[in-house]
Amino acid sequence: MTLAALVLELEGEAPPTPLGLRGFFYSLLREHFPELHDQGENPFSLGFGGKEGAYWARLAFLREDLYARLSPAVFGLEGQRVRLGAPFRVRRVLQEGHPWAGVSTYARLFQGEPSPDLPLRFHSPTFFRRKGVNYPLPEPRLVLESLLRRFSAFAPVKPPEGVQAALLERATVRWLEGRTLGVEGDTEATGFVGRVVYHLPRATEEEALWLTALGRFAFYSGVGAKTSLGYGRVRAFKPSVERTTSPA
Hints:
The chain is α+β, with helices and mostly antiparallel strands. The protein has helices spanning about 20-30, 65-75, 140-155, 160-170, 205-220, 240, and strands at about 1-10, 45-50, 55-60, 80-85, 85-95, 100-105, 115-125, 130, 135, 170-185, 185-200, 235. The strands form 3 sheets. Strands 1, 2, 3, 4, 5 and 6 form a 6-stranded antiparallel β-sheet that branches. Strands 10-11-7-12 form a 4-stranded antiparallel β-sheet, covered by helices on one side.
């Protein structure tokens, strides 16, 4: 089953807005996949970034049927004008060749060397709903609960109960650097941006394999609340490379 992230390179004078990006994507859903209903977990995540003259928007798909239905329409936007809060012209649609574009499969997430360490870089404000309020600290249990929940909702294989218990009960933080950042349009909400290395003590090979796979899955799924607005955009990183660079 395919996982995919498409990046729209944009020409415009202002960055996309969270609500504008979500409204644009929901219009695509209404036109090309109207039977998709709210299932509790969104089978997609959205994101945006860039700078003046080189903004971009990102559409990531956690279900193969959603990707298959929407991707032809998205690729067809090249050269077209769209509105993502502000007006833009779509220069290109990329499935590769951009840091936030890519294609994988759920099976491929488990390939490669497993590790008891999971380094995640939080590129956009990340927060969690906790007791009715937004909570900005990327605690191991909150991050892994979010990833396990979305993985279980859409992947063809489910995490074993013993592995889930091990990840949620034993995972800790080996290293952290970051800060809180205000969430656009909500003066009371903040999210975390920066880098965290999570660690699973006494990890078995199976547990380490799942931890590593979830880190790769995070690139597509995002973490925490409001990933449909561009929040919780994360990816794994190499601590030896990035420890000396500025967070987020």
